[in-house]
Amino acid sequence: HQPVVDQMSSDNIGFRGLLYAGLMIDEGALNVLEFNARFGDPETQAVLPLLDGDLLPVLAASARGEELPRDTISHSGRASVSVAIVSGGYPGPYDTGKPIRGLDAVDDAVDVFHAGTAIDDDGRTTTAGGRVLAVTAVADTLAEARGIAYDNVRRITFDGSFHRTDIALREL
User: For the chain, what is the mean pLDDT?
Assistant: First the structure.
């Protein structure tokens, strides 16, 4: 981020808010894919559960152009893993309207973020997009968080569902 922030400052480009960098590591090199003035999805679903404190005063101060409050949020020191469950065919064509089973079997301590879901006429949760759900687990270690996340991902099913099996694997 810093080279971009420095360049914006030297060019007198004012910016207030959140600057999200989409990054990828390829063959050991860090590559910037994009910048957005918003939180990234699904990355934020793994980051926000790790914050201790209230993020709202920081965001509100930024929006008002005020000095950001110090020591209002900190990193919990824990680890998180978030695994997306997608519709078969995603990012290409995919079917929708598939009933989602197992949401009631997920551990209470795990967060399930809905993205491409809907409620049908019978009150069932169904697929309505390519990225359907993200399951996020927080634990003391990355290995524990990964195990909890995948244990809960396996409890959720729908026809054509798919999830990557390598999230956080190389970090262990």
Answer: 93
Tell me the C-alpha distance between 38 and 20, whole Å. 6
Is residue 1 very low, low, confident or very high in pLDDT (cuts 50, 70, 90)?
A: low
* Cα distance between residue 57 and residue 54, in whole Å: 7
Note whether residue 34 is domain-resident: yes
Any domain includes 73: no
Contacts of 106 (CB under 8 A, 6+ apart): 112, 135, 152, 155, 156
Range of the domain at 115: 79-163
pTM above 0.90, yes or no: no
Contacts for 111-117: CB closer than 8 Å, 24+ residues apart: 111/45, 111/49, 111/135, 111/136, 111/137, 112/136, 112/152, 112/156, 113/42, 113/45, 113/82, 115/41, 115/42, 116/87
